[in-house]
Design brief:
The protein starts with a helix and ends in a 13-residue tail after the last strand. The chain is built from 3 helices and 21 strands. The N terminus is likely disordered. 46% of the residues are buried. It has one domain: 6 Propeller (Neuraminidase), CATH 2.120.10. By secondary structure, the protein is mainly beta. Strand 16 and strand 17 form a beta hairpin.
């Protein structure tokens, strides 16, 4: 009798176990452009220090994420977070930055040179920064001649940067303005910034390529590039934008997980989908948002 009951119970137990597995199994979500794929919370998230709390930049070298504080003197490196999240940042390494008198405001990884292009805290100094934290001045931007049509934004010296490996150039986005400038990585004959003659800048505030229809205003905050097009973030707007390098607006993509989107950087290797790393301006959050298509923005400038 006991043996008979044992064989009767066995199929029932198997059925119940399979049912429990089915009940608690987590099916992977079907990702879509604009979805949050991952999120890292840095130690600065709860900082009472104003400058640390609004760190505006992020960079990605294919293995790690990097950032500085606002015009900071420390290069922070953290692990790429697991998908999902948010999760607390792990593996933090802090390296003193040497060679920049005004600190570093923003970073962009250059895979060809295995280092970062960086803008100083004055908004006018462009450096090459090594992973060891050594900054070498590449050139200064002459505000009277190298930024045609410049209109000062809320934070005058805050500028985002993106390295374009397709032609070895830099895209330079002053905060809360409508013009993104395009410079060579080498200086002109006077030792200052050299605008790219064919495409010296793009505008995000001129119809029909403005962003007011989605945001209610036109301005740029961060810029990223790693292929044929630019990707632009806008503080306080729940869309990010895709532009050609001649200034035509290609697309506007909704997302809703950031309050103040700042610097952006491309990543096509960390997850099953390509993402943009976007820094939250007033919190220590670095969020991975899915790109509009696979490989639209390749890390390191798209070399």
């Amino acid at each position: 009798m006991k043996n008979s009951l044992r064989w009767i119970r066995l199929p029932l137990m198997i059925t119940l176990a399979i049912g429990a597995i089915g009940l608690y199994r987590v099916e992977p979500a079907k990702a879509a452009r604009g979805d949050r794929i991952a999120e890292a919370i840095t130690p600065e998230d709860n900082s009472f220090a104003w400058a640390r709390g609004i760190s505006p930049n992020v960079a990605f070298d294919g293995s790690y994420l990097y950032y500085t504080e606002y015009a900071g003197s420390i290069l922070h490196r953290i692990d790429v977070p697991p998908p999902g999240g948010p999760t607390l940042a792990t593996g933090q390494v802090n390296l003193p930055i040497m060679g920049s008198s005004s600190g570093i405001m923003t970073l962009a990884y250059d895979r060809r040179r295995d280092g970062f292009w960086a803008v100083g805290g004055d908004g006018l100094s462009v450096y090459f920064l090594t992973k060891a934290g050594n900054a070498t001045l590449a050139y200064r931007i002459d505000p009277s001649s190298d930024r045609p049509g410049f209109q000062s934004g809320t934070f005058v010296t805050e500028t985002k940067i993106a390295y374009d490996g397709t032609d070895d150039t830099i895209w330079y986005s002053p905060d809360a303005t409508t013009r993104i400038y395009h410079y060579k990585v080498t200086p002109d004959a006077l030792g200052t910034a050299d605008l790219v003659t064919a495409t010296p800048y793009i505008d995000v505030g001129v119809a029909p390529n403005d962003i007011a229809a989605q945001c209610g205003y036109s301005q740029s905050s961060g810029v990223a590039v790693g292929g044929a097009h630019l990707f632009v973030t806008v503080a306080g707007c729940s869309y990010y934008f895709e532009y050609t390098k001649t200034g035509a607006k290609v697309g506007a993509y909704p997302y809703s997980v950031l309050e103040s989107s700042q610097d952006a950087e491309c990543d096509n290797v960390s997850y099953g989908v390509a993402v943009l790393w976007i820094k939250e301006g007033y919190k220590g959050r670095i969020v991975a948002i899915e790109q509009p298509s696979a490989g639209a923005c390749v890390y390191g400038g798209g070399v």
